[in-house]
Design brief:
Length: about 525
């Protein structure tokens, strides 16, 4: 039985939807111009009325990631369009949520017709079944390709081949091996020497730009003038790649051992010397033991918007008991009274978390899964780079300290001996501090490789937040709050604005919360931080 509904194509309004992913894994897909040209030819042959053309450069692998596609569905639901014309079903969807929406809109008659250049679609039970199968095949292709690409990238990396970001002074050949980039390599090598001698980054950038530093374009196999700034140099001078240690998401490799003919731009001694200029030296061991002060460097004045965080102190109240207080450092601040009881702050933050985190909808967990994969991958790279950098600095400090120890026996001048001992003491403090940081980084790296929380674990953590904020110890509350927020601004009574910390900034993307009382009531749009940066 044929249940196809006869329709007059000439009376329907069609939107042409063409898409090309920006991901390298889909570069083989026809270009947008080719897709649109084929769609318009089909429209002319069938007498289809095209009222809009939508061109999108986004991957369809993940749902809710294409704003133009999302708007297309809204426009169809509002009867702006009757049908869609596309090159192939995989242009519309490569995930189960988006494909399910399309089939549901067909079932309910909201989408009256679909047309494809490379596929004949009939709006009946068999046609929708075949369409659903094509969507499944598209998803399988995308998932399988992603797995193969990841496996290939990891395998290449173990062989010293990289598909990562460009490195200044190097080019990647066809095999992914870094090779010196002619004059750019020499210029950047000189830049390292200048930095090791204490030259400021501003002067180094001026030197590079005035001597023709250029950027290599692999696509055109040519160089173009590309001014380099101090922010780029800051990243270069902290990157262990330049002496041979390359860091990627899941591993770290030594190119000097794996890649035949790899030429490091500098050696470890040069890298260590540069780090002594990049980091502030400690003047000596601190004799002051800091007490635990909750929310230190996290709380800011919402009355005067002073740039420095509020101070936290302990003092006696009228009843003779000791209490925590927060005060603004700005002498011109109009806050009255000058100090704010910590109890008010914690009560306000608890109310805020109850009104936001504890009210998260069920879809939040799906957003968490989407965001955490990207968040943890980028964090792993940063952790590995910082871990490798700090280990080199520790090794350099230890070598310097050993040299000073050897020279101490040959010194006779008391002033020289005193200066040497002071330098050795400072280096010991710095080494201890770096080793503590290395331990924390290693723990963080281990945590970043742990599996993502399940739905029950995720929501259990949210419920734990409420429990600990109500009855937990002060250090537990401090840890919870730091997990959620980057900054908190308070007036005389409560939190008035705040910056979420990732991944919660992304999780709150579409949530709007009303919080506050009276004149200070405001609606916070959690798409971006609530305060101008």
């Amino acid at each position: 039985m044929n249940d196809t509904v006869e329709i007059n194509l000439s009376k329907l309004r069609y939107a042409v939807y063409v898409r090309k992913s920006t991901e390298a894994a889909e570069k083989q897909v026809r270009t947008l111009d080719d897709q649109e040209r084929d769609c318009r030819k089909l429209a002319d042959d069938l007498g289809i009325n095209i009222v809009a053309t939508i061109r999108e450069k986004k991957s369809a692998k993940a749902p809710n990631s294409r704003p133009l596609f999302k708007q297309l569905l809204k426009d169809i639901k509002s009867s702006k369009y009757d049908g869609v014309l596309s090159w192939h079903p995989d242009r519309l969807a490569r995930n189960t949520i988006d494909s399910g929406q399309i089939i549901y809109l067909l079932d309910t008659g909201v989408i009256k017709d679909l047309r494809f250049v490379s596929h004949q679609f009939s709006n009946n039970a068999n046609g929708k079944m075949l369409l659903g199968m094509l969507f499944v095949f598209a998803k399988h292709y995308s998932d399988d390709l992603s797995h193969k690409v990841k496996r290939g990238v990891d395998g290449n990396f173990r062989d010293g081949k990289s598909s990562g970001t460009r490195k200044h002074g190097y080019i990647r050949d066809e095999d992914g091996i870094y090779r010196p980039d002619g004059d750019n390599f020499t210029l950047m090598q000189k830049a390292w020497s200048m930095r090791a001698e204490g030259t400021p980054n501003t002067e180094i950038a001026e030197y590079l730009n005035s001597n023709g530093y250029s950027r290599f374009l692999k696509k055109d196999n040519t160089h173009i003038t590309s001014p380099i700034g101090t922010s780029i140099l800051g990243k270069v001078f902290n990157d262990t790649f330049y002496f041979g240690i390359l860091c990627q998401t899941n591993q770290t490799t030594d190119l000097r051992e794996l890649v035949t003919g790899f030429i490091p731009m500098i050696n470890e001694d040069m890298f260590y010397k540069v780090q002594t200029y990049n980091n502030h030296r400690r003047r000596g061991p601190s004799k002051k033991l800091e007490l635990f002060m909750p929310l230190r460097h996290l709380l800011y004045c919402g009355v005067c918007d002073y740039e420095k965080s509020m101070t936290v102190s302990r003092s006696k109240g009228r009843d003779g008991k000791r209490y925590l207080y927060y005060s603004c450092k700005n002498k011109e601040c109009t806050r009255a009274p000058r100090s704010m009881r910590a109890k008010l702050v914690f009560n306000s933050i608890t109310d805020l978390l109850n009104a936001t985190v504890n009210q998260l909808p069920e879809v939040t967990y799906k957003r968490y899964l989407d965001e955490m994969s990207q968040f943890t991958d980028s964090k792993k790279v940063d952790i590995r780079k910082e871990l490798a950098r700090k280990k080199v600095v520790v090794a350099g400090h230890q070598k310097t300290r050993n040299d000073l120890t050897s020279s101490l026996n040959k010194q006779t001048d008391e002033r020289s001996i005193m200066n040497t001992n002071e330098r050795m003491a400072n280096l010991s403090v710095e080494i201890d501090s770096l080793n503590n940081s290395i331990t924390k980084l290693e723990v963080s790296l281990k945590k970043s490789t742990m599996p993502v929380l399940s739905a029950s674990e995720f929501w259990g953590l949210i419920r734990l937040t409420d429990k600990k904020m109500q009855k937990g110890q002060l250090f537990q509350k401090d840890r919870i709050i730091r997990n959620y927020f980057l900054k908190l601004y308070v007036d005389n009574e409560k939190v008035v604005s705040y910056h979420w910390k990732e991944p919660f900034a992304s999780l709150m993307e579409t949530t709007q919360i009303s919080y506050g009382r009276g004149e200070r009531t405001r609606t916070f749009d959690l798409t971006v931080p609530n305060r101008a940066r």
